[in-house]
């Protein structure tokens, strides 16, 4: 089995971003770590962007990704719809 490093990086970075964002949100609710809120949110956004960029390296022809959005049954279109709905 071949390892798909871009997908591994995408999953790791997005999960790290979500965990950091969720942890900082809980800390904000309880009034703890006020000085760390903005840096944590910025770091979370950077991790999310890096994960989003990493996923494009998985595609053989990344410039064709928008062709998939025209087909409602394509996996990328269904993922996009799920992200927008959630």
From TrEMBL:
Keywords: Membrane, Transmembrane, Transmembrane helix. The keyword Membrane applies. The lineage of its organism: Bacteria, Bacillati, Actinomycetota, Coriobacteriia, Eggerthellales. The chain crosses the membrane at residues 7-32, 38-59. This is DMSO reductase.
């Amino acid at each position: 089995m071949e390892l798909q490093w871009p997908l591994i990086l995408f999953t790791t970075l997005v999960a790290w971003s979500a965990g950091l964002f969720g942890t900082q949100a809980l800390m904000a609710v309880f009034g703890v770590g006020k000085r760390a809120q903005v840096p944590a949110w910025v770091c979370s956004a950077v991790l999310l962007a890096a994960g989003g960029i990493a996923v494009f390296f998985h595609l053989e022809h990344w410039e064709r990704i928008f062709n998939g959005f025209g087909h409602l049954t394509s996996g990328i279109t269904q993922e996009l719809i799920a992200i927008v709905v959630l």
